[in-house]
Structures are given as structure tokens and as C-alpha cells.
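Tutorial sheet, problem 5. The two components below are modelled jointly, 362 residues in total.
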Amino acid sequence: MIAALALLLTFQLAGEALRVALHLPVPGPVIGMALLLLWLIIRGGPSVPLKDTSTTLLQNLSLMFIPAGTGVMLHVGRLADEVWPIAIALVASTLLGLIATGMTLHLLTRGRRQGESS
Amino acid sequence: MSTGSMNEIWVYLSAQPLLWLALTLAVYLLAMALHRSSGGHPAVNPVLLSVSLLVALLLVTDTPYQRYFDGAQFVHFLLGPATVALAIPLHGQLKRLLAMSGPLLIALVVGSLTAGLSAYAIGALLGASGPTVASLAPKSVTTPIAMGIAERLGGLASLTAVFVILTGIFGAVFAAGLLKRIGVKDDASIGFAMGLASHGIGTARAFQINEQTGAFAALAMGLNGLLTAIALPWLLPLLAPLLR
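Model answer (C-alpha cells):
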């Protein structure tokens, strides 16, 4: 588990270094994810400890959003002042984004499945 | 034990990172137990429950957020390695992802622009202030990218973090049910939509459904972060004059 964590942190570090060196607009961990994916493609897959550690981390991904989420308490004032524009914009745009993405992918892949079968 | 010595213990412990770290984990475990006992109902969302409980606790004990974060930051730090770990389920679904790369890219562009531009336009039309609107635009993107984008647009990074979290919780609670109702029932489309519209919290929820849904969510989260960071800063100045 420690070796797997060290590997994940190493890729995060490499991602962070690449971001700073190339002034990329994407955060270090996301670049680290892409680098690790490349490494897994070259290696042919993750080791058992790496897979187990990752599964544990990802099953508890919700936990890691709690500290930042609790920061909601710092913005109660502004949220109260503009509650309706904020609430409507957040809810409506999230629903639109979900529907646009889900519908587009669903329709495109269904069309192709039918195309393959005919 | 006298109230005086209880108070002394509290004053000591509440200033230590240990207390708030331990409480964050305890509250999360409680929220997960409730989530499981509800049969995994999406409305019993672990992030929503935990954040509500902790905010109540901090307000009741008059604890500043910064002191709470001094302890909770150790959990927050794990977001980095967990993001890197998303490569493992992505690798597991690689064949499917590559076979679908065309439709995935089209859905990415359509969804990303819809989510970002509609948040900005609706906020502006309803009369939200400039900094609020600029902080709303990147709200579907994972927190660190969203904060960077908001700053470039003239928004407030910490307010954006709040919008991102609220969007994530909303998407995690409602996405799967809504998509099924409009006939979108395959894992790939549900996962991709959840990751795109509600980033990491939606991805966390997608992994609770199954690993395939989670992998598509993780991919959408990463790609949407990249596309929004590039597209929004030059698209919004074109859109802004139309809304005045």
C-alpha cells in the first residue's frame, strides 16, 4: 500500500512539475492521471497493490470533498444576498449540462450500434 | 468530572488539528452508514450530510473555518493522489473509451459549452453581480481548475469553490434519476454526463453505481476541465455583450 501511494504521489509530483514547466492550464493531479494512464498502457496494467489502493481511495472519494465543502460557511452572506439568481443558475445549468451530455452520447452511440447491426 | 475541567479539555482539544481530523472521519463514517442503511439512495448523499453536520458543529462551537481546515487538510490532501488514481479505472475501460472516442468528443463539446455558458447567461439575466456570474461560469469543472478559470474571468476563487461543491452535490443527488427518466440508461452516457456536469462529486457518486459508470465520469471530468480552461476565457467575452 505504501509503495502504491508513493507511486501515485510520484505521478502527482511529475504532473505538478510539468504544469509549472509548461504553464499548462490543467492542475498537476490531472496531468499526473494522464501520465499514469500512459504508464499503465506501456506496462499493460496496474499491479495488485496499486489496484487495491486506488480502489480504496476512489470508493472514499466523497470523504475528500468534505473539508473544501465545509468552506460553504464562509460565503453564507453572499449566498443569502443573491440566493435566487445563484440557485436558479446553478440548478438550471447543471440540468442542461447533464441532459445535453447524456442525450448527445446516448443518441450518437445508439445510432452507431444500429449502424453496426444493419 | 466538573464543568470547569470539561471546558479546559475542550479548549485544549479544539485548538488541535487532531480533533477536527478525527471528527471529519467520524462524521463521514456516520454519513456512509446512513447512506448504506437508506439502500444507497442518492438523496442521502455522504458529502451533503457530512458538510451539513460539520457546518452545524463549527457554528455551535464558534470554531473558525481556518482552525477546522488545519485538521481537515490531511483529508483534503488525499484528493491529489485520488485524482491520479482515476487512471486505473480509465485503463480498465480503455478499449471501450477508444471505440467510442468520436461520440465522446462530440458529447464533451456540446455538454461543456451548455453547462458553462448557460450558468453564465442565466446568472447574468437574473441580475447576479459581475463577480458572482464570473464565479458561476466554471462551476461544473473540478475545483482547482475552476478556481483558476474564475480568477481569469474576474470571479472569486473561494466563491467558485462553493459553487463547484454545490453543483457537484446537486448533480450527484439528481443526475442518475433524471437521465433515466429521459431515456438515457446506459452506463457510459450516465457516467459521462455526471462527470462532465458535476466533476469529482458526481464521479464519486458514479463509482457508487459501478466501476464502468465511474470510469466514464472520471474521463469526462478530466476532459471537461481541460476544454473549459481553454474555451471559456475566450468565449465569455463574446457572449457578455449580448446579455446587457
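Marking note: Residues 73-118 of chain A form one domain. Full credit if you identified this.
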